[in-house]
Amino acid sequence: MFDVVVVGSYVQDLAFNTEIFPAPGETRIGAFRTGPGGKGFNQAVACNRLDIKTLFIGAVGDDIFAKGVREFIASEGLSAELQVCADHPTGAASIVVNGDGQNLIVVALGANDHLSSDHIGAFAAQISQAKYLVCQVENNIAATEAAMKIAREKGVTTILNPAPINDGLTRALVQRADILVPNETEFVFLMNTVLDHNIPNDFWLQDDASIHQFCRQSGAATVVLTLGDKGCFVSFDENSDNARNSTDGPYYRIGANSVDVVDTTGAGDAFNGGLAAGLVRFPGDFRTAIEYANKVAGLSTTKPGTAPAMPTLNEVEAV
Q1: How many other C-beta atoms are found inside a 10 Å radius of the C-beta of residue 64?
Q2: What's the confidence (pLDDT) of residue 319?
Q3: Taking the alpha carbons of 6, 11, 12, 17 in that order, is the dihedral positive or negative?
Q4: Please, what are the domains in the chain?
Q5: What are phi and psi of 41, to 5 degrees?
Q6: Which one from 13, 178, 263, 269 is the annotated catalytic residue?
């Protein structure tokens, strides 16, 4: 039995480091590295490294990148069920990181876009018996919806990270999320394009009470807005267990941890994996789980890469 099941993407990171981002038409000299990544995979690795029983469900091609991820999975001791899509390449991401650790990313979904609902259904028992299901939208939306449906029908708490911005994101998928974890731009897209609301693009600059009301319009019982180096904003439905257990009221902010940043790529994934792990480790204490996720996210930025940069339990406990 797994505490956390992650249904999500695997992509091979093709990363370039250069002091300054090149302007359009400009070429700059930099360094190159490649390694395992993808939002779902990063989140699963983060959770697994925190000693949480984790299962990753995803899709890969039949190529050299798929061979590499299998080797990495074995080295991590991570449980994974990979659908092989022989007619499609393993997903890949082109990542450019500047001297401040900021990044620009383009993702080719490849096999991720062909993850099937049948593959998800084959592991319905594992999803049904988990404590948390974690999903993103970096793969086939229909497969993600199938996983969320199984979880909700069995009372498994669902965590949806609606990233990256995906035109295929549906109202039905959002409505199956118990915990919604977007960043600022993802939240605006979700609210205005998917849910047909009309919130301002700079909503996060308003007072906390107003931000809370925007979050309540999403329909999710719990919303965690990740705000980069400003930490995060937490909003609960006032009738939810999380709100009743909160000593901070139905909404509050938690600041980010101060670290020496090397590479911010994957920090959001580290946060989501850390949140799932924190919720397992600290049941009924959402604030502590969020603080735990912040630690995980902060530590992930002190190393280059995505999945390989996820901190271990010992590293988190040492902070």
Answers
A1: 10
A2: 86
A3: negative
A4: 4-8+39-61+115-317 (3.40.1190.20)
A5: -65, -45
A6: 269
Quick check: is 269 catalytic?
yes
pTM over 0.70: yes
- Residue 42: its pLDDT value, please? 98
Whole-angstrom distance, CA of residue 150 vs CA of residue 88: 27
Number of other residues whose CB lies within 10 A of the CB of residue 207: 7
- For 191-236, how does the pLDDT look when each residue is reduced to its tens digit (9 = 90+)? 999 999 999 999 999 999 999 999 999 999 999 999 988 899 999 9
Alpha-carbon gap, residue 300 to 269, rounded angstroms: 9
Q: With a cut of 50, which residues of the chain have pLDDT below it? A: none
pLDDT at 108: 96
pLDDT at 228: 86
CA angle 47, 179, 318 (to 5 degrees): 35
- Angstrom distance (rounded) from CA 217 to CA 204: 15
Encode burial over 73-90: b for 16+ CB neighbours within 10 A, e otherwise.
Answer: beebebbbbbbebeebbb
